[in-house]
Specification:
Length: 210
């Protein structure tokens, strides 16, 4: 990330991801898990209201990482979520086992994360993951219009303070869940299950698609 981009993001009060000094000074590689951890920490600790707008399918990381830690989730009618990690020998990434449970409840989260089923737009609304559903056509404009109306009638700092108070008791559990998921994922790779599953999927696709 360039210094100009870092400066721009800082002025916009947005999370900035930097390499840790320990990695730079010791000339160690910057591992993908470090980036994932820093990304999730930046979102969890972000002081402004974090709004996730989903316009279409979110599968895998897109469904696991962000919906549970977003403050507000707005989705289109074409949205669906699916996390098929168990089928690939993986585990729910980046603390999603906890963050999604906080949104949709233990039993629904268990079924969604363990069995890898698909949640439609109606599902994520009724399960408490999404706040509102908009039509796919003109989705971006409808989201902006909705948020502009909210800003006209509500004080920004009051909304940010409400977010802080709501998220304060959740923060530590979410950060710990990210660490735990990174450890669990590493154990899965040590066991070799993902390699076996991916190889089986590759052979299956070769047979199906030639």
């Amino acid at each position: 990330m360039s210094d100009k981009m870092v400066h721009y993001l800082a002025r916009r009060n947005m999370p900035v991801l930097r390499k840790r000094k320990s990695h730079t000074s010791l000339n160690l590689p910057y591992r993908p898990n470090d980036l994932a951890l820093e990304l999730m920490r930046s979102i969890i600790d972000h002081t402004k209201v974090f709004i996730l707008a989903l316009n279409g399918p979110a599968v895998g990381a897109g469904a696991a990482w962000f919906p549970g830690v977003a403050d507000i989730v707005l989705a289109s009618t074409s949205t669906y979520l699916q996390i098929p990690f168990s089928a690939l020998g993986l585990i729910p990434e980046c603390g999603s086992a906890i963050s999604l449970t906080q949104s949709m409840g233990v039993h629904r989260a268990n079924e969604f994360l363990m069995f890898g089923g698909k949640l439609t737009a109606d599902d994520i609304l009724s399960f408490g993951i999404a706040n509102r559903i908009f039509e796919t056509e003109g989705f971006g404009e409808k989201v902006i219009e909705y948020l502009e109306e909210i800003l006209k009638t509500n004080d920004g700092k009051s909304m940010m303070e409400a977010k802080r108070l709501q998220n304060l008791p959740l923060r530590d559990s979410r950060i710990l869940a990210v660490y735990n998921s990174i450890d669990a994922l590493a154990e899965r790779f040590v066991d070799g299950a993902p390699f076996e599953r991916f190889e089986a999927k590759r052979k299956e696709m070769e047979v199906t698609y030639g």
